[in-house]
Amino acid sequence: MAKKQKKQGAGGTPATVALAAAGTAFTVHAYDHDPATPSYGGEAAEALGVSPDRVFKTLVADVDGELTVAVVPVAGQLDLKALASAVGGKRAAMADPAAAERTTGYVRGGISPLGQRKKLRTVLDESASAHDTICVSAGRRGLEVELAPADLAALTSAVLAPIGRG
């Protein structure tokens, strides 16, 4: 069962601390994470009772040698060509998981687009703008943060582009 918390600041994850510091409205949703789950995002959508098109996963890709964050709905997949195009690149491939973890400061399955160790270029799938709020990882498996897509885009300096498919 999902638990709801409002504005977690001190003692939270780097993502929630960054949100609180920015004065952004958000809600933290915690749920019991099953380490054996095949899909972290699908698990989050189900646990929170939220449509999978409102729950977004954070993926790290290598675009022409530069790590780039892609935020796409959990129900679909990342279109690597579209991601490269969105940032003016030629080629994109999924980043090495160890490099993604080291650069963002988060573990795989818990990478948040917010509060990363190093600020990376970020692209948010344009479908996010169809919703009042979306959920993204709060920086730990079993923890999601719900916020307005415009706030997420502003805090991460994200480009909105059609990078999701499926």
What does it look like?
With 166 residues, the protein is an alpha+beta fold. The chain has five helices and eleven strands, in the order E-H-E-H-E-E-E-H-E-H-E-E-E-H-E-E. The strands form three sheets. Strands 6-3-4-7-10 form a five-stranded mixed β-sheet. Strands 1-2-9-8 form a four-stranded antiparallel β-sheet. A hairpin with a 2-residue loop joins strand 3 and strand 4. The two termini are 28 Å apart.
Rough outline: globular
Say what oligomer this is. single chain
Radius of gyration (CA) equals 14 Å
User: H/E order of the elements?
Assistant: EHEHEEEHEHEEEHEE
Strand order of the largest sheet: 6-3-4-7-10
The stretches of 5 or more residues where confidence is low (pLDDT under 50) are 1-10
Structure annotation, total helices: 5
Helix content: 10-25%
The major beta sheet can be summarized as:
5 strands, mixed
What integer is the average pLDDT? 91
Terminal-residue CA separation? 28 Å
The counted number of beta strands is 11
Instruction: Name the structural class.
Output: alpha+beta
Describe the SSE topology.
Blueprint: E1 3-6, H1 14-22, E2 27-30, H2 40-48, E3 56-63, E4 66-73, E5 77-78, H3 80-86, E6 92-94, H4 97-104, E7 121-125, E8 134-140, E9 143-147, H5 149-156, E10 159-161, E11 164-165
Parallel strand pairs: 4-7, 7-10
Antiparallel strand pairs: 1-2, 2-9, 3-4, 3-6, 5-11, 8-9
Briefly, what is this?
The chain has 5 helices and 11 strands. It is α+β, with helices and mostly antiparallel strands and 166 residues long.
